[in-house]
Amino acid sequence: MDRAPGLSVRLKFTLSYAGFLVLAGALPLAAAWIFILRHLPKYTGVDGGVLIRSTLLHDFASASAAVLVVLLMVGLGGGWVLAGRMLAPLTRITDATRMATNGSLSHRIRLPGRKDEFRELSDVFDGMLERLEVHVAEQRRFAANASHELRTPLAISKALLDVARTDPEHCTGEVIERLHTVNTRAIDLIEALLLLSRADQRSFTREHVDLSLLAEEATETLLPLAEKRGVTIETSGDITPTIGSQALLLQLTVNLLQNAIVHNLPGQGTVWLNTRVCPKTVVLTVENTGEKLTPQLVSTLTEPFQRGTERIHTDYAGVGLGLAIVKTITEAHDGKLTLTPRSAGGIRITVELPVVAAHL
Ligand SMILES: Nc1ncnc2c1ncn2[C@@H]1O[C@H](COP(=O)(O)OP(=O)(O)OP(=O)(O)O)[C@@H](O)[C@H]1O
Ligand SMILES: [Mg+2]
After folding, report:
1. Same domain, 313 and 173
2. CA pair distance 343, 346, nearest whole angstrom
3. Which positions ≥6 away from 214 have C-beta within 8 Å?
4. Per residue in 263-293, pLDDT tens?
């Protein structure tokens, strides 16, 4: 073990333990010594008394020295063993930390025994490793998915360009149109990724925002899409003040409303958009009719690139980042996102944000 020069904690413990033991032994011996010095002459008034006293003192001194040496040995030996036993959990924790530093996040300390300070430290450390492992796995999955999603439009563009190059005569407007669509999709994807990282960094300016105005603006923007799909939007709610980024919270509302429209029943769907103030939070709720969803499926939808089953049934081919962006924006505003499947089909999504007094 490469440790910088200096006394190890085990040695410090040992020396302290031995020191205390010797001191504890020396005190009564010193008291006895003083007692003998003071009182012995009173009892030695006979001939040879002085000689008896000095022999006694000499014998007492050597016996005391022997006792102190024994105490020192016991203190050093016992202290070393005791300190070793007490510090053993720390060695396990250090080993685990070293393994985690070298990249092995799957190792756990799992310290046995009663709940003491070391056990608490070890449990907290295990919890941290677990969260770190999940986070790293999430990041890896995200990078792999993002690369895959970005490669698809590029591969399609390349195939279209190859066709156009080998047969320029047949390079019709249709090929250009398809190239344009694929290119737009790639740009949308990259913009969604940039938005995700911007929200994640929390590097936006915070201002007063009224969620009910954002809901109205989003409804206005998406009304043509809703009409095209035969979906009715019912918006309700009074002034709902909070603090945050106007642009990001509008993006959040638009994403939720767009989802509620495109992942709805075709031709007969309804969306309910509501904002309200609760005692400690302000709440934006988006609820829509649609296919029946299981709670298991719903719990995975906020993962990046996760798409539900409708992609097969509808013409909407999203990239699967809409809800991941909503979740990141909510968390960046210290809010809470909840997704609940409706028993009649469709989903109910609530975003709870910190409340702000209107006069602030
Ligand atoms: N309001 C909703 N009702 C029913 N299903 C929904 C709703 N919102 C999202 N989903 C499901 O969750 C999936 C993920 O949604 P998300 O918004 O992240 O991606 P997307 O809509 O497929 O693509 P985009 O990135 O373009 O938004 C959707 O594919 C859909 O299956
Ligand atoms: Mg979406």
Report:
1. no
2. 8
3. 246, 249, 250, 253
4. 999 888 999 999 999 989 999 999 999 999 9
Please report which confidence band the pLDDT of residue 312 belongs to, taking 50, 70 and 90 as the band edges: very low
Same domain, 86 and 165: no
Cβ proximity of 262 and 230 under 8 Å:
no
Choosing from 313, 323, 343 the residue with most ligand 1 atoms within 8 A of its CB, the one to mutate for a pocket test is: 323
Cβ of residue 254 lying under 6 Å from some atom of ligand 1: no
The count of structural domains within the chain is 3
CB of 318 within 6 A of ligand 1: the answer is: yes
Q: Are residues 83 and 135 in the same domain?
A: no
Please indicate, yes or no, whether residues 181 and 47 belong to a single structural domain of this protein.
no
Residue 56 has a pLDDT of 83
Mutate to test the pocket of ligand 1, among 258, 301, 326 (most ligand atoms within 8 A of CB): 301
- Best CA proximity match to 323, nearest among 290, 295, 275, 286: 286
pLDDT in tens, 90-101: 888 999 999 999
Predicted pLDDT of residue 44: 53
User: pTM for this one?
Assistant: 0.73
Q: Is the CB of 21 under 6 A from ligand 1?
A: no
